Amino acid sequence: MELVTPKDIGIRFDVAEDGATYLDNAKKKADTGRRLSGLPTLADDSGLEVPLLGGRPGVQSAYFAGRDHYGDGPALVRALLTALGDGAGSSPPASFRCAAVLALPPSRAANTASASTRCSSWPAGGGWRS
């Protein structure tokens, strides 16, 4: 068995992460990769869930700082600190959640979802530390 990336086999694609859940987005990515490559495809979706923000940013983590800042880590941290306001100094716990899907030809799929919790703190200087 050889693991390859889309780039390794000359495939380039973007999948809109517009699903209601991490699993929805991971399925969409895996199915697209399998369809374009003809190969079994492993894909994931993940996000940060902050209880003080009602679980946000959640499945929309990559867009939390705005569509113009898709996947921009520093912009995401700034947006989180802004959203937390005075709560940013209280070291809120956060969870990183991930779902992964293995899409197998012809249309079988193996799904798995996992969650891990990591306590993190927000230093007064505005950086992220865990």
Structure description:
- This protein is an alpha+beta fold and 130 residues long.
- Helix content is 22%, strand content 25%.
- The protein contains two helices and three strands; from the N terminus they run H-E-H-E-E.
- A three-stranded antiparallel β-sheet has the order 1-2-3, with helices on one face.
- The longest helix is centred in the first third of the chain and has 16 residues, at 22-37.
- The protein is elongated and about 50 Å long.
- The N and C termini lie far apart (36 Å).
- The model is unreliable at 115-130 (pLDDT under 50).
Helices, strands, pairings?
Layout: H1 22-37, E1 41-49, H2 73-84, E2 93-104, E3 108-119
Antiparallel strand pairs: 1-2, 2-3
Characteristics of this structure?
single chain, 130 residues, three-stranded antiparallel beta sheet, elongated, disordered C terminus
Number of β-strand runs:
3
Oligomerization state: single chain
What is the spatial order of strands in the main beta sheet? 1-2-3
Query: Alpha-carbon distance between the termini?
Result: 36 Å
The major beta sheet can be summarized as: 3 strands, antiparallel
In which range does the helix fraction lie? 10-25%
